[in-house]
Amino acid sequence: MKGNIPRSAACFPISVVQEITSLSARQIRYYEEQGLIDPERNQGNQRLFSMNDIDRCQEIKELIDQGLNIAGIKAVLSARNKNSG
DNA sequence: GTTCTCACA
DNA sequence: TGTGAGAA
After folding, report:
1. Mind listing the UniProt keywords for this protein, alphabetically (predicted)?
2. CA–C1' distance A1–C4 (Å)?
3. Which of A35, A24, A44, A47 is nearest to A71 (CA)?
């Protein structure tokens, strides 16, 4: 048994993301609307965020705080997607 | 507690 | 880009 959970284990509701990302449910949902994040969904249509999605939301917030817009963030996501580091 | 829609600044 | 109010 690995004891530790994978970073892709989506088991956090939007309420949890609010705390760790210090964002609002509206913003979190807003980012997903822009395609900045892609959380899983429960049978109840509830969003389930993983350590990866949560960490990403923080990155998104940072970019926006830097003066970037959805277009700019999407560019960053793409840049991070083309390489691991 | 969570999600969706419409309208506004 | 981010938020308020109403309904399920």
Report:
1. DNA-binding, Repressor, Transcription, Transcription regulation
2. 47
3. A35
Residue A56 pLDDT grade (very low, low, confident, very high; cuts 50, 70, 90): very high
Listed as ranges, the nucleotides of chain C within 7 A of a protein C-beta are 1-4
The reply to whether A69 has its C-beta less than 7 Å from any atom of strand C is yes
A14-82 CATH fold: Multidrug-efflux Transporter Regulator; Chain: A; Domain 2 (1.10.1660)
Per-residue model confidence as pLDDT tens digits over A16-49 = 999 999 999 999 999 999 999 999 999 899 999 9
Domain boundaries, chain A: 14-82
